[in-house]
């Protein structure tokens, strides 16, 4: 007499639950552009959603705690001349977000902690290099200010956002439209899918394809007959992959193991309404006190609702086995170090006491003077102590000026808010006298 052996896993009973009505974001005009991106990006501070906009492209940024009905006049981030196709938060600065557009440009924005009274129209930097629309963005997981973009020109460009310059351009690796791009854990390799039905593993610094045309899959999972695009989200801490079908109404999730059959179906979260897009919260933004292991932000036509994945546990103590140390916001490398060939794993943090965000740093873009990179006309000489001292003084002066500009900007913002309040009071007074 045989008995069926049940596979042991702490994630066998993970269940999904939609957020309550007061946790949703209402009256949001989600973009109707036909594109395969998730239209939504989230981090522990902000929720960003690509929205409908006349005469260009825009996305909306909401503080995570600002749930409920969104004012129809809520400011947007509005600088592109064409529809926004993709957005991605910087993993090393929760106030910095990049956007890609049909207008062939990538823009990087600094989002203030306060809610602005007007649209944000001035990006920190505009990155121009693609000849066709840009539809894919992905920040480097460990190097500061390194951003990848992929466009309809079948080209992948890697940028240094801190200087506004192009670091690498992969022009000849894809013969057709690029569908998706993903970094590996330490950012040494890229994985791409393409319209030619080929999956490529690329070393971007060498500009070489190191593996492709995988003939035999490790596992084959039949999904359903839906023709919607799948949005995959992988959590390396739990080895769970979540598959969200765009236009579908379910999230299927699987556990990945090192032993055959490698892929193990766990469960399916189903709801009544289809999803227009999906945002995936980084691990440091979860509520560890409730054994929350994943949180999605599901886009409907006019709203966004959180979907919480939880492992049922009776104990109120911190569950070490559910929350190994996870990548934090501190970069492990500078852009120049990565470009020179260095690799480093993510800097990990503990979630035992919950995640406490550091004080946000302002992203500063240094425009390099073309005269500084011209070859010297005479014999090269080493920098003297006086030259070094003068350069340091210049740097200190520049930092002082930037701080003064920031202070002036904040004062102007405060005065604008005061003027607006006084105008409103004046209108009320005039209406009262009439």
Describe this entry's structure for a reader.
12% of the residues lie in helices and 33% in strands. It has helices spanning 335-339, 385-433; strands spanning 15-18, 25-26, 40-42, 46-51, 57-63, 68-69, 77-80, 84-89, 96-101, 105-110, 125-128, 134-139, 146-151, 156-160, 165-170, 178-183, 190-194, 199-203, 208-212, 230-235, 240-245, 250-256, 263-270, 277-280, 292-299, 303-310, 326-327, 348-349. It is globular and about 75 Å long. The model is unreliable at 369-386 (pLDDT under 50).
Short description:
With 434 residues, this protein is mainly beta.
Main sheet attributes: strand count, strand direction, barrel closure: 6 strands, mixed
Considering DSSP H and I runs of 4 or more, what fraction of the residues is helical? Answer: 10-25%
SSE string, helices as H and strands as E: EEEEEEEEEEEEEEEEEEEEEEEEEEEHEH
Distance between the termini: 93 Å
Beta-strand portion reads 25-35%
Give me the secondary-structure category. Answer: mainly beta
Gyration radius over CA: 24 Å
User: Poorly predicted ranges (pLDDT <50, ≥5 residues)?
Assistant: 369-386
DSSP helix count? 2
What keyword list fits this structure?
single chain, 434 residues, mainly beta, four-stranded antiparallel beta sheet, 28 strands, 12% helix
Helices and strands in order, then pairings?
Layout: E1 15-18, E2 25-26, E3 40-42, E4 46-51, E5 57-63, E6 68-69, E7 77-80, E8 84-89, E9 96-101, E10 105-110, E11 125-128, E12 134-139, E13 146-151, E14 156-160, E15 165-170, E16 178-183, E17 190-194, E18 199-203, E19 208-212, E20 230-235, E21 240-245, E22 250-256, E23 263-270, E24 277-280, E25 292-299, E26 303-310, E27 326-327, H1 335-339, E28 348-349, H2 385-433
């Amino acid at each position: 007499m045989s008995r069926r052996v049940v596979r042991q896993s702490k994630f066998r009973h993970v269940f999904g639950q939609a957020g309550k009505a007061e946790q949703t974001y209402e009256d949001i005009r989600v973009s109707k552009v036909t594109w395969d991106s998730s239209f939504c990006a989230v981090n522990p501070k902000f929720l960003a959603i690509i929205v409908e906009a006349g005469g260009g492209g825009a996305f909306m940024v909401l503080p995570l705690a600002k749930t409920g009905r969104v004012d129809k006049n809520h400011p947007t981030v509005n600088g592109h001349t064409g529809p926004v196709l993709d957005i991605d938060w910087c993993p090393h600065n929760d106030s910095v977000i990049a956007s890609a557009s049909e207008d062939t440009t990538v823009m990087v924005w600094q989002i203030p902690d306060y809610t602005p009274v007007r649209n944000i129209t001035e990006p920190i930097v505009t990155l121009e290099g693609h000849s066709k629309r840009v539809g894919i963005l992905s920040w480097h997981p460990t190097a500061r200010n390194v951003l990848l973009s992929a466009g309809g020109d079948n080209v992948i460009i890697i940028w240094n956002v801190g200087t506004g310059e192009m670091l690498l351009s992969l022009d000849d690796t894809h013969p057709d439209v690029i569908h998706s791009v993903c970094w590996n854990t330490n950012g040494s390799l890229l994985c791409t899918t393409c319209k030619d039905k080929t999956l490529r593993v690329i070393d971007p610094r060498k500009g070489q394809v190191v593996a492709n045309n995988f003939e035999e899959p490790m596992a084959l999972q039949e999904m359903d007959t839906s023709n919607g695009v799948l949005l995959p989200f992988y959590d390396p801490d739990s080895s769970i992959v979540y598959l969200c079908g765009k236009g579908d109404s379910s999230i299927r999730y699987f556990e990945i193991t090192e032993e055959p059959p490698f892929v193990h179906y766990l469960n399916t979260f189903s709801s009544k309404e289809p999803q227009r897009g999906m945002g995936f919260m980084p691990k440091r933004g979860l509520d560890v006190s409730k054994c929350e292991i994943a949180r999605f932000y599901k886009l409907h036509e006019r709203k966004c609702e959180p979907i919480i994945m939880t492992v049922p546990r009776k104990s109120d103590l911190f569950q070490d086995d559910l929350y190994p140390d996870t990548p934090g916001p501190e970069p492990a490398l500078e852009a120049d170090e990565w470009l020179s060939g260095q690799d480093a794993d993510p800097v990990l943090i503990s979630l035992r006491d919950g995640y406490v965000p550091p004080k946000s740093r302002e992203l500063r873009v240094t425009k390099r003077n073309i005269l500084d990179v011209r070859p010297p006309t005479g014999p090269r000489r080493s920098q003297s102590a006086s030259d070094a001292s003068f350069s340091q003084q210049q740097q200190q002066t520049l930092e002082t000026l930037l701080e003064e500009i920031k202070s002036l900007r904040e004062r102007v913002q405060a005065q604008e808010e005061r003027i607006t309040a006084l105008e409103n009071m004046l209108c009320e007074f005039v209406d009262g006298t009439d």
